[in-house]
């Protein structure tokens, strides 16, 4: 059976499973659509939350970013994992005890203000839409490769699949679909990693193989360091970027994770506060299975691709065009070239494809002496690395098909959760909560489905031209959530001093200052002086746009406290409410707000 047929079988079977589950668990009420009827078991919810949280950025993009940068991008691992711990300890149980359906509803009631609820809706939409761009980007990449079509058509197909099971299933359907998606994605991620770890180190546990030795007896990381430095790249295991930027970036990811509305919503689906705590613990276990494996996947993939392009070392000829076109070991390159995400050019006509860092002066001189004309691997999108890894390592066809299904499961699971958060914000917080409070449950359910469909269309349009690699786009979303939503939730739970005016001022200040920095940094304003800004040219010292969320959060906290101190004190009944939420007596059945 050829590889294309295998891919279709694995992907088709997984999609049939997801849609079948969604039909079986179709939401019939607003409670089921928003919170799955609050009847999800903690273990089930933990698995669904892990799938919701581990997105295309985790499955597809993160290992690629680590592979091409090394130690400096380990902040993705530390930030996202640490952020989940913050969410589990500081937010999830208290928000569940409050008993509402959405994050915006909590903010509106806690700060006794419709304006606060509306601002929270705006913050949620900005962060969630930015986040979903990265997911749809991952969907397009995975579909494009494994159906051997352009990433544009892959994006459209993925949008149709999400529409089929998320619009009708709501939170109830999405929950059980995400359980299946977690099983698919974790299997698809770990099996190739085990194979490759065995190939390179003889150790079946990738996390241990990373620190093991290759067949030659040389430590894997030492060998990788030698190869990448020979090619003119920075040492893999050493830090090279700004320490300040790395700390701020890690912090932005942490508090951004804790402020993600689509993950927080998952804790509204369990019956009791104690179940929310158990769900958080189980989620961390399920997340750890992938995150302990990711560094090994990144390093081993970088080693494989480097050795493949320079099979006899940097002093011998590189891979030839003829090899790429005829050798089965290089067939994956021709296949990925069709997606537009991989490209090469024999610039000097010598029949070889030289892959090295042409920014390195010594290597450039050597290249010119040998008649080279710059790096001839002209395009290598980092997001393809995990999906291409089994092919690069010449693993069996069924493993490649499994990875195809896993990459799509990761992207679709998070996309569905985000779209649900967006539709809930529009239908429950904006329409039902503000504009048409007398809306019937049937009409609200219809509005939720229509708004989700509209959100899918917007996500597709924006996903066609994303502002970076999938993980970088997601990092921007985390920064926005960190600057706007997380501080409001923290102050809402742990401080009775913050009033409605302070909360609104803080959220707006954090969101606006972060958006301004991102837009200016990325050159999205059509002003000549700003169009030259890139991630290598920050506006404020070494601080990149993906790291600014932590500063935006500090602005949010500061403005909220200053404005609250200058305005009317929080009413006593709200102070009592905060105390009752913060001290969950007995951890029994939660206050049901509906």
From TrEMBL:
One of its GO terms (biological process) is carboxylic acid transport. The chain crosses the membrane at residues 6-25, 77-95, 116-134, 146-167, 179-200, 246-268, 280-301, 398-426, 446-464, 470-494, 501-520, 540-563. CDD domains: SLC5sbd_u4. One of its GO terms (cellular component) is plasma membrane. It is a multi-pass membrane protein. It is found in: Membrane. The keyword Chaperone does not apply. It comes from the Bacteria. Keywords: Cell membrane, Ion transport, Membrane, Sodium, Sodium transport, Symport, Transmembrane, Transmembrane helix, Transport. GO terms for molecular function: symporter activity. The keyword Cell membrane applies. NCBIfam families: Na_symport_lg (TIGR03648). PANTHER family: NA(+):SOLUTE SYMPORTER (SSF FAMILY) (PTHR48086:SF5), SODIUM/PROLINE SYMPORTER-RELATED (PTHR48086). Belongs to the sodium:solute symporter (SSF) (TC 2.A.21) family. This is Cation acetate symporter. It comes from Sulfitobacter sediminilitoris.
């Amino acid at each position: 059976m050829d590889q294309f047929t295998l891919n279709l079988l694995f992907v088709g079977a997984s999609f049939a499973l997801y849609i079948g589950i969604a039909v079986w668990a179709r939401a019939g009420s607003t409670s089921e659509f928003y919170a799955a009827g609050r009847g999800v078991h903690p273990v089930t919810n933990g698995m669904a939350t892990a799938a919701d949280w581990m997105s295309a950025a985790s499955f597809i993009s993160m290992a690629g970013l680590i592979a091409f940068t090394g130690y400096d991008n380990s902040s993705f691992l530390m930030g996202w994992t640490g952020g989940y711990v913050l969410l589990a300890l500081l937010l999830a149980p208290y928000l569940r005890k409050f008993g509402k359906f959405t994050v915006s509803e909590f903010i509106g009631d806690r700060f006794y203000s419709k304006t606060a609820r509306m601002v929270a809706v705006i913050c949620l939409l900005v962060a969630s839409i930015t986040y979903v761009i990265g997911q749809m980007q991952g969907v397009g990449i995975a579909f494009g490769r494994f159906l051997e079509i352009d990433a544009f058509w892959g994006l459209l197909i993925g949008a149709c699949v999400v529409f089929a099971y998320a619009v009708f299933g709501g939170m109830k359907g999405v929950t059980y679909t995400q359980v299946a998606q977690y099983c698919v994605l974790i299997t698809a991620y770990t099996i190739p990693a085990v194979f490759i770890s065995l190939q390179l180190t003889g150790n079946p546990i990738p996390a241990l193989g990373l620190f093991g030795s290759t067949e030659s007896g040389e430590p894997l990381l030492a060998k990788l360091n030698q190869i990448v430095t020979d090619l003119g790249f920075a040492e893999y295991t050493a830090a090279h970027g700004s320490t300040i930027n790395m700390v701020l970036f890690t912090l932005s990811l942490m508090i951004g994770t804790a402020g993600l509305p689509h993950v927080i919503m998952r804790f509204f689906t369990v019956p009791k506060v104690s179940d929310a705590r158990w769900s958080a613990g189980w989620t961390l276990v399920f997340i750890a299975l992938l995150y302990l494996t990711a560094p090994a996947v990144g390093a081993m993939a970088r080693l494989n691709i480097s050795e493949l392009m320079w099979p006899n070392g940097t002093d011998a000829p590189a891979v030839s065009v003829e090899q790429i076109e005829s050798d089965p070991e290089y067939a994956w390159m021709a296949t990925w070239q069709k997606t537009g995400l991989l490209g090469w050019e024999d610039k000097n006509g010598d029949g070889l494809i030289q892959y090295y860092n042409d920014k390195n002066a010594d290597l450039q001189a050597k290249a010119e002496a040998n008649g080279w004309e710059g790096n001839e691997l002209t395009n290598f999108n980092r997001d393809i690395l995990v999906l291409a890894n089994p092919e690069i390592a010449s693993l069996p066809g069924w493993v490649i098909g499994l990875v195809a299904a896993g990459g799509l499961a990761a992207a679709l699971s998070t996309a569905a959760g985000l779209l649900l958060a967006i539709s809930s914000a529009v239908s429950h917080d904006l329409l039902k909560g503000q504009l048409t409070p007398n809306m019937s449950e049937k009409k609200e359910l219809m509005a939720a489905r229509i708004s989700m469909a509209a959100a899918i269309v917007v996500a597709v349009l924006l996903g066609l031209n994303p502002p970076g690699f999938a993980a970088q786009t997601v990092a921007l979303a985390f920064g926005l959530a960190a600057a706007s939503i997380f501080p409001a939730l923290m102050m809402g739970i742990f401080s009775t001093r913050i009033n409605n005016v302070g909360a609104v001022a803080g959220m707006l200040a954090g969101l606006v200052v972060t958006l301004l920095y991102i837009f200016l940094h990325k050159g999205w304003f059509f002003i000549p002086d700003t169009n030259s800004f890139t991630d290598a040219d920050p506006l404020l010292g070494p601080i990149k746009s993906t790291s600014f969320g932590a500063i935006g959060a500090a602005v949010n906290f500061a403005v909220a406290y200053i404005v609250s101190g200058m305005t009317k004190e929080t009413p006593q009944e709200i102070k009592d409410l905060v105390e009752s939420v913060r001290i969950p007596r007995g951890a029994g059945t939660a206050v049901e707000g509906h």
